[in-house]
Amino acid sequence: MEISTILVVDDKPRNVHVIDQVIAAHLPDCRMVSAGSAQEGLERLRKGDIDGVLLDVQMPDVDGIEMCRRMKADPSIAHLPVILITGHEASAQLKTEGLDAGADDFLTRPMDYSELMAKIRVMLRIKHSEDQLRDTNVYLKALIADITESKKMEIRLRQSQKLESMGTLAGGVAHEINNPVNGIMNYAQLIIDKFGEGNATLSEFAGEIIKESERVVAIVHDLLSFSREEGQAYSLARLCDIVESALSLTRSLIRRDQITLHVDVSEDLPLIRCRKQQIRQVLMNLVTNACDALEVRYPNYSADAVINVTARPIRDDEGEWMRLTVEDHGCGIEPEVKERMFDPFFTTKPKDEGTGLGLSVSHGIVTEHEGRLRVESEPGDGTRFHLDLPVDRSEGGV
User: Fold this and answer.
1) Which partner from 49, 57, 129, 217 sits 20 to 30 angstroms from 234, CA to CA?
2) Strand pairing partners for 301?
3) How many CA atoms lie within 13 A of 183 on its CB side?
């Protein structure tokens, strides 16, 4: 049998003794503990294991109503039910004051012991019901968290399956494109070899055909590399190569939106150890978001529609980093959006234009690389995303 504990707070020992006798004789599933003042009562409550409180209104220093008020202000004990006991017929004003302080009921001395037992039983039923409700809420919150995590895993799986399918498709497309492109390049070279001598214009045009064909081959190679699974292996990489590969897949979007792109990424920067495909994915997401922000602010051509991609080494208290910055002159980010922008499924885009996973996945990738993804933005003043990755100082990485 579960035993419930009742705390009686009264400065008169005789009153405490009477209640103790009643509880012992008629409520075998209850036990009583006592306190002689409000301060002692609050200290006892904070130790735990109390199921309900019988609280005398008329006590020196701090009266029962004030103690009740302090109880309800303390989150750790605010849920406990309280019955106030008065030494005379309680006035309407006193009852109102007690109920406003958080009391659940009143008793008046001299007490009817059957009424005392009935009200204690009701108080304990309320307490146990609220305990069950809190337990149910905890369970439901955990269940919702599990469902949310399962949903995120399901979406990650679908994304992985899409990438796998894209990789298979890209492999086939690469062969279909490479074969005719190689033919075009070969014919252009034959034109130069056979008819180029003495015809500078023809040689120049054929050379441009070869140059543009090589660009098509590079784009197909980057698309294939992006879509393939890399075995999740870390390797040394130059940031300039990752940037060029990522931008080759987004330049068409940038040109379509009439955006000017400035890139300042030196070839002699320190190496980083990373999963190249994943960092490329992060950069593509940041550039795409920058395009979206500029499109909102400048729906038509503007000289201010600019994206800057820069990289430089930095050092701080946490170590040595390669900082890749994507900066736009778009509409900026509101403070309430900035607080949640890395949350899964949070998006300001319409339902058919975004899942709210781009920045969340990017943040997860950067965290796995022991890096940092930070944002600087003010509404109407553009946005700068800083991607910091640790510099590799191992042998071969310097």
Assistant:
1) 217
2) none
3) 5
